[in-house]
């Protein structure tokens, strides 16, 4: 029972997650060694024991109904095959995919986020902002797709590296909307178009930049930020309404007292 409490301790598991992230960082940097490999195996075993301990403590349904547990459990299950790489010769099987699954454990580092204050409120605001901004995102995506398909039909032969396929065209138009390096794409057409054609092409891409980048993307950002802080504004409006009601009630009481004083003065 004591060991189970250790393996389900939040602080202990967070410490193991940090150690495992450092181990994966060293392994991916080419600094692998027997000690690092042993630490990697120990972290995996501890994660497995933690998952089993939580299943015992919470039950199968109780464990998997919690979002963080679902993420942790899935990552642990996917990383279990990585233990095979330490006991099975690499010549017999291609273990590259197994090693990729091992790296997935680094996503458990996101578990550290929930220790920050008001993280639940931030997540709720983020989710609400995504839902409220969904029509704007869809509209912006449609705008990108329309320009991409039109550009793909026109510039497929002149610039196949940017507009050879619809997917490449969508990516290229999205790059234009981010403004960074937007001039590289129209300049790539300078070798295949005449001076007059290139002038019209540059005007066309400037229109895309203004519509999608300066106006479109800025509008998406503003709507998303406004939706993120809308809850705070709602709370503030509620407090202001309560204050106004108190002021109205106080004004009525003052008026009532004034009326009473006037009646009393007229009697005397």
List the helices and strands and how they pair.
Elements: H1 2-7, H2 10-28, H3 34-58, H4 60-64, H5 67-79, H6 96-103, H7 119-155, H8 160-163, H9 166-177, H10 184-187, H11 195-228, H12 230-267
Helix pairs in contact: 2-3, 3-5, 7-9, 7-11, 9-11
What CATH first level of the largest domain would be assigned? Mainly Alpha
Whole-number tally of structural domains:
2
| Terminal-residue CA separation | 85 Å
Share of helix, binned: over 70%
* Rg, Cα atoms, Å: 31 Å
The name of the CATH architecture of the largest domain is Up-down Bundle
CATH superfamily of the largest domain: Voltage-gated potassium channels. Chain C
Classify the fold: give the CATH topology of the largest domain: Four Helix Bundle (Hemerythrin (Met), subunit A)
Helices and strands: which structural class? Answer: mainly alpha
Please report which band the strand proportion falls in: under 5%, 5-15%, 15-25%, 25-35%, 35-45% or over 45%. Answer: under 5%
Please state the average pLDDT score: 78
Number of helices: 12
Helix/strand order, N-terminal first: HHHHHHHHHHHH
Q: Low-confidence parts lasting 5 or more residues at pLDDT below 50?
A: none
Which term fits the overall shape?
flat
User: What's the number of extended β-strand segments?
Assistant: 0
* Major pleated sheet: none
């Amino acid at each position: 029972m004591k060991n189970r409490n250790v393996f389900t301790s939040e602080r202990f598991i967070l410490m193991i997650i940090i150690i495992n992230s450092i181990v994966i960082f060293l392994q991916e940097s080419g600094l692998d060694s027997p000690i690092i490999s042993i630490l990697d195996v120990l972290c995996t075993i501890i994660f497995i024991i933690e998952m089993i301990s939580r299943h015992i403590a919470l039950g199968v349904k109780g464990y998997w109904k919690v979002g963080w547990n679902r993420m942790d459990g899935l990552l642990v299950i996917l990383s279990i095959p990585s233990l095979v790489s330490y006991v099975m010769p690499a010549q017999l099987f291609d273990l590259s995919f197994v090693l990729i699954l091992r790296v997935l454990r680094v996503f458990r580092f996101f578990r550290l986020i929930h220790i920050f204050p008001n993280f639940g409120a931030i997540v709720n605001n983020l989710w609400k902002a995504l839902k409220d901004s969904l029509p704007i995102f869809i509209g912006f995506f449609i705008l990108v797709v329309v320009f991409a398909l039109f550009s793909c039909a026109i510039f497929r032969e002149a610039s196949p590296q940017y507009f050879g396929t619809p997917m490449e065209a969508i990516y290229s138009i999205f790059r234009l909307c981010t403004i960074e390096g937007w001039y590289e794409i129209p300049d790539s057409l300078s070798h295949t178009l005449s001076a007059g054609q290139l002038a019209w092409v540059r005007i066309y891409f400037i229109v895309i930049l203004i519509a999608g980048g300066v106006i479109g993307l800025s509008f998406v950002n503003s709507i998303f930020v406004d939706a993120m802080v809308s809850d705070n504004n709602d709370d503030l409006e509620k407090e202001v309404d309560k204050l106004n009601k108190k002021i109205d009630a106080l004004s009525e009481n003052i008026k009532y007292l004034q009326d009473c004083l006037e009646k009393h003065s007229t009697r005397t």
